[in-house]
Design brief:
Blueprint (H helix, E strand, L loop, with lengths): L40 E5 L26 E5 L3 H4 L6 E2 L6 H5 L10 E3 L11 E6 L5 E2 L7 E6 L7 H16 L3 E5 L4 H5 L2 E4 L24 H10 L4 E6 L1 H17 L4 E6 L15 H20 L4 E7 L6 H9 L5 E3 L13 H12 L1 E7 L4 H8 L16 H16 L5 E5 L2 H6 L4 H19 L5 E6 L2 E6 H5 L10 H10 L7 H9 L8 H4 L18 H9 L5 H11 L8 H26 L6 H31 L4 H28 L11 H24 L4 H8 L12 H8 L9 E3 L10 H9 L7 E5 L2 E4 L2 E3 L6 E4 L6 E5 L15 E3 L5 E9 L11 E3 L4 E9 L5 E3 L3 E5 L2 E4 L4 E3 L2 E5 L2 E4 L8 E6 L9 E5 L2 E4 L12 E6 L5 E5 L2 E2 L22 E5 L17 E3 L3 H5 L25
Parallel strand pairs: 2-5, 7-8, 7-10, 10-11, 11-16, 12-14, 12-15, 13-14, 18-19, 19-22, 20-23, 21-24, 22-25, 23-25, 24-26, 25-27, 26-28, 27-29, 27-30, 28-31, 29-32, 30-33, 31-34, 32-35, 33-36, 34-37, 35-38, 36-39, 38-40, 40-41
Antiparallel strand pairs: 1-2, 3-6, 4-5, 5-17, 8-9, 16-17
Helix pairs in contact: 3-13, 5-6, 7-8, 8-15, 18-19, 20-21, 20-23, 21-22, 22-23
Length: 1064
């Protein structure tokens, strides 16, 4: 950063952008980058040769010759050997059974797959396939070494006990497993250690009872505690029975198990009475629910038939999906109208519900309405002004639409039409949930349970089971949780229902045309369809629902930038009506990603026009930064889709990634401002496009922040998860990685060794990093760098995750370069080391930039690695030494030296027990230790220096009094820096903090704080009197900036991933 105030991007610098663009929102196509699900691999092959040993999991492009590629795609599930390659296999005990000896076809081979789509056109590609479920000839567990556990979560559903019974019996009867535990009371049971010893005798007749034998609960998911408990109990098979939220929890358990390298198979059995699980044909309990609903419908019909103008309403389950209501209606000829969440209805006006009821009463004298519990929620909420509340699982609490609709019908006919009606309302929902399953569901539950057992024994993990086109398959958990299965209004089944009841569709011809003609190839946002709602057929209709445009106005008016929000929604469709802020947030993220993708595309197109070195440098930076932005937005979208607001920690993750996405855009603009002058290729650069992305991300940050506020109840448990466990390392750090950090470099078991003398695998660090990037399994990978000075620049890209670089000591292992902005580079690209890969660890090594103070900005280390650790590292330079660019970073026992802004950026970064050395600057310069770049009030970033030392470099000490040294200055509008319990030498000015140039920029919006510092430079009596400067006196206020919660206020709690002792 320049020392002059013109470097401020948000105040005094012109907003340059290197691409000449004019963004027209209506020209954007809604394209979505597919999330890179960690638990899902997609294999594109010419033939279904699927042996895991023969065919590595790859992502290949299709051949240009159709004859050579039939579009076969395998969506594979993880296997224990993916991260435990040396795991031993054993013959399946079933091979000794007579039925399997006589009929080998009873075993499933790795070549067997199940097609997702069987009704296709003649020339269609073969499409998506899944691994077929069933016993395999090899297993990866010895039966007498298996310790399995079963847990049930969420609401009740017929068939849960049958699944429990058949898992126990399947493990015991088929595989001889005797050590089986039942975890009581859902995920919380792992913490409280409520367990039952299960055996076939114990569970013999539980299928005859409703409910769950193991009891259940909602929420309570703490992945770290659960996996710690799994480790402590030496459990190696986990069977998880539950719905959408539960399966998302299962996915997180699998990911943590994989990170720790545990031989634990995690199997999910999808449970949802609503049948809203994607991919599979149906969920268990659904048939029972449809059958039992007939009793309620028959009772309602008898009631209304026995009175004059009888109107009966039967409310059935269906929060987001109306399958139970639809099938129950089709199974009964006594239903006159079916209302489901997928098809909005309206009450008044031509073609409305009141009109239909009156006509049917005139014809028959009575009618029965089947109402799914999620139907009409937006109307009820608008009518009663209800708050948007959530249950413990993060699901939106439904308003009771049944009594509301009953009252509306009664009021209309008695008051407006002067017509007496007899209302009959029946709500059998809890009764249906609590009954035992019928015979067909019992059979289905048995098949699900046995499929899960076979899969776990065969070494598969991170999977769920279910029938796909009537054949049971293993499906990646991410696939069944990425979206909700809903009734498709254009499907033949809904058409059959409309024909059966002769009810109005509540759709105009224009609405129906839009539903049918949307091309899903150019509009792949399946979750958008969940938000599309038809409007009443005429403006004269007094519909209960507010107009769609009003709904969008309502949501957009709550954001910092309402105008672009409204513009982008209206330019796409006027039928978006988000039900709550979580849906609205997902829509905003997608719109931001659309624009980021458009900008990325423009960058590619403008690349060939770059002629000068400066232009090419800015082009390269911006291309990478927008690519990273799309990556972070995709992470956010996947998290929000899988979250349903149930996990406080995941919302914080999303806030971190959104903060990083916004930082990337500002960094691109910063680089353009540094290098591109107005008369060059980019003279026509238009800020409108980048401003659009920035404002949309800013809106998402604000809305997601609101969701974080409402889920603060988890803060205490989240803090406990992030705190140290007594050995000085955070709980999220796996045990084997703690050992890596504590051990001496000489005894670290390295995957690759780098040595300048040729005694290792490589002679350069970058060559080793490139080799690590090619590995298939992204578990922890250790590169040991032997002593020596390595003159090179290194880059770890965002896909090279879990990399650890270990030197022989910060004094003897040094990576050095001398790039600077004087060489025609941006500050961003001048770095000796650039780290983007998540969970990066560096230890006992120095990153150095030797450009010197005359060369200006010259970065030694640039990190945007999320959950990264730098331990016993040296970071040496002058101006802009450490660029803590974005995301969550921790520095422990490090030595950092420099002059101007030498700790800067917009990460959430904690420096603990570090030695911070001010060096001699150029004449006329002053030393600035920090320059924090938080440009949005909702970014969860900041710099926290704790229990450290701020001293003069030995060479600077004799002349230190001739120069001013400050703790920092505000680089951006909402800069945030705190210094706590740190020794400060006398070289620091009594003012403590410097303004940006000669201005008062950001002095009332920044947060600069000091708490219980010591040393001759620590006195706060002469400090600046800015509104944003705080002398912290309250331990509670100081606690907000510890490694456990790097935040301003009680609203943001990012996990920093640092070794620390709890408390301040």
């Amino acid at each position: 950063m320049d020392f002059s105030p013109t470097h401020s991007l948000s105040k005094t610098s012109p907003s340059f952008y290197p691409f000449s663009l004019s963004l027209k929102p209506n020209a954007l196509k809604l394209l979505r980058v597919q999330p890179n699900f960690a638990s899902q691999s997609r294999i594109f092959l010419r033939k279904p040769s699927l042996s895991r040993q023969k065919n590595p999991v790859i992502r290949a492009t299709s051949s240009s010759n159709p004859a050579q590629n039939d579009g076969f795609v395998l969506e594979d599930v993880p296997h224990l050997t993916d991260f435990l390659p040396d795991l031993q296999s054993y013959p399946n005990p079933l091979q000794k059974r007579q039925a399997y000896v006589m009929f080998k076809k009873n075993f499933v081979t790795p070549e067997d797959v199940v097609a997702q789509n069987i009704v296709i056109q003649k020339d269609s590609p073969r499409g998506v396939h899944f691994r077929r479920a069933g016993p395999q000839e090899k297993v990866y567990f010895k039966s007498d070494e298996v310790r399995a556990c079963i847990v049930t979560c969420g609401g009740l559903c017929p068939g849960i006990n049958t699944v429990i019974r058949e898992i126990v019996c399947g493990l015991n009867y088929m595989y001889g497993v005797e050590d089986i535990l039942g975890i009581e009371e859902g995920y919380r049971g792992f913490y409280s250690k409520n367990t039952l010893k299960l055996s076939p005798k114990v569970v013999n007749d539980i299928h005859k009872r409703g409910g769950t034998f193991l009891r259940t609960s909602r929420g309570g998911h703490d992945t770290q505690k659960i996996v710690d408990n799994i480790q402590d109990r030496e459990i190696n098979q986990v069977y998880i029975i539950g719905g959408d939220g539960t399966q998302k929890g299962a996915a997180r358990i699998y990911e943590e198990v994989k990170k720790r390298g545990l031989q634990v198979a995690v199997a999910g059995i999808p449970k949802t009475i609503d049948n809203d699980i994607a991919v599979i044909d149906k969920s268990f309990g659904f048939d029972t629910a449809v059958e039992e609903a007939q009793r309620a419908i028959n009772a309602a019909h008898v009631e209304v038939e026995s009175v004059e103008n009888g109107v009966g309403i039967v409310k059935l389950m269906g929060r987001y999906s109306g399958f139970i209501a639809m099938y129950a209606t089709l199974a009964s000829r006594d239903v006159d109208c079916c209302l489901i969440p997928e098809s909005s209805f309206y009450l008044e006006g031509k073609g409305g519900l009141f009109d239909f009821i009156e006509e049917r009463l005139k014809e028959n004298g009575h009618l029965v309405i089947v109402l799914a519990e999620g139907a009409g929620q937006e109307y009820v909420a608008a009518d009663v002004h209800a708050a948007n509340e959530k249950d413990a699982s993060g699901n939106r609490l439904l308003l009771d639409v049944g009594p509301w609709l009953s009252q509306k019908i009664k009021d209309h006919f008695t008051q407006d039409r002067k017509m007496a009606v007899n209302m009959k309302y029946i709500d059998p929902t809890y009764m249906i949930r609590a009954i035992p399953s019928i015979a067909s569901d019992n059979i289905y539950c048995t098949l699900l349970a046995h499929s899960a057992v076979h899969g776990a024994m065969a070494g598969y993990t991170g999977f769920t089971v279910g029938p796909v086109n009537s054949k049971h398959a293993y499906i990646p958990i991410a696939r069944v949780t990425e979206k909700t299965n809903t009734v498709q209004l254009t499907d033949r089944m809904w058409a059959r229902l409309l024909a059966s009841t002769n009810q109005p569709s509540f759709l105009t011809s224009n609405d129906l045309t839009q539903e049918i003609t949307v091309d899903k190839e150019t509009f792949p946002l399946d979750f958008f369809f969940h938000f599309l709602r038809p409007q009443p057929p005429s403006s004269s209709s007094r519909a209960t629902s507010p107009a769609s445009s009003s709904s969008i106005d309502f949501w957009c008016n709550q954001t910092p930038h309402p105008d672009p929000c409204k513009q982008y929604f209206v330019s796409r469709t006027q039928r978006f009506r988000p039900k709550d802020d979580s849906e609205f947030t997902r829509l905003l993220v997608q719109l931001a990603m659309d624009q980021a993708q458009f900008m990325h595309k423009q960058a590619h197109e403008y690349g060939p026009k770059c002629v000068t070195k400066n232009q090419k440098c800015v082009f390269t930076d911006c291309l990478k930064l927008y690519d990273n932005t799309i990556f972070h937005l995709n992470q956010t979208l996947q998290t929000l889709n899988n979250n349903n607001e149930s996990s406080f920690s995941l919302l914080l993750d999303a806030q971190t990634w959104l903060s990083a996405a916004l930082t990337n855009i500002e960094t691109c603009r910063s680089g353009a401002a540094e290098l591109i002058s107005g008369g060059e290729v980019f003279s026509a650069a238009d800020d409108e496009a980048s401003d659009g992305v920035r404002k949309m991300i800013s809106n998402v940050l604000a809305v997601n922040h609101g969701m974080i506020l409402r889920t603060q109840g988890e803060i205490e448990s989240e803090n406990a998860r992030l705190e140290g466990n007594g050995d000085g390392f955070p709980m999220w750090f796996p045990r084997h990685e703690r050992r890596l950090l504590r051990s001496n470099s000489g005894i670290v078991k390295a995957n690759i060794v780098v040595a300048k003398d040729g005694s290792g695998h490589f002679t350069t660090v970058q060559a080793a990093i490139d080799a690590a990037a090619k590995r298939r399994v992204k578990t922890r990978f250790v590169i040991r760098v032997k002593r020596g000075i390595y003159e090179e620049n290194i880059e770890v890209d965002k896909n090279n995750v879990n990399l650890m670089i270990v030197g022989d000591g910060m004094r003897v292992t040094i990576i050095t370069s001398s790039k600077s902005t004087q060489d025609g580079l941006t500050t961003y690209s001048s770095a000796t080391a650039g780290i983007d890969g998540p969970r990066f660890i560096a230890r006992d090594i120095t990153f150095r930039n030797t450009a010197g103070p005359q060369k200006g900005q010259a970065v030694a280390l640039r990190s945007a690695s999320d959950l990264s650790v730098f331990y016993r590292c040296g970071i040496e330079g002058y101006q802009d030494t450490l660029m803590a660019h974005a995301q969550r970073q921790f520095y422990r026992n490090c030595k950092i030296s420099g002059t101007v802004d030498f700790i800067f950026g917009n990460a959430a970064v904690v420096l603990q027990n570090c030695l911070i050395l001010a060096r001699k600057p150029l004449d006329g310069q002053a030393n600035m230790i920090t320059a924090q770049g938080r440009g949005d009030p909702f970014q969860n970033s900041g710099i926290s220096i704790i229990n450290s030392q701020i001293r003069a470099d030995p060479e600077f000490r004799p002349v230190a009094r001739k120069f001013q040294t400050y703790l920092g200055r505000p680089w951006q509008q909402y800069a945030r820096v705190v210094v706590m319990k740190t020794y400060i030498e006398s070289l620091v000015s009594p003012l403590g903090w410097s303004p940006w140039g000669n201005s008062n920029f950001a002095q009332d919006t920044l947060y600069f704080g000091e708490y219980e510092n010591t040393g001759p430079g620590s006195s706060t009596k002469g400090r600046v009197s800015w509104p944003g400067f705080h002398v912290i006196t309250s331990p509670k206020e100081a606690e907000q900036f510890t490694v456990g919660s790097l935040l301003a206020g009680r609203t943001w709690l990012p996990s920093t991933g640092v070794p620390f002792t709890s408390g301040i």
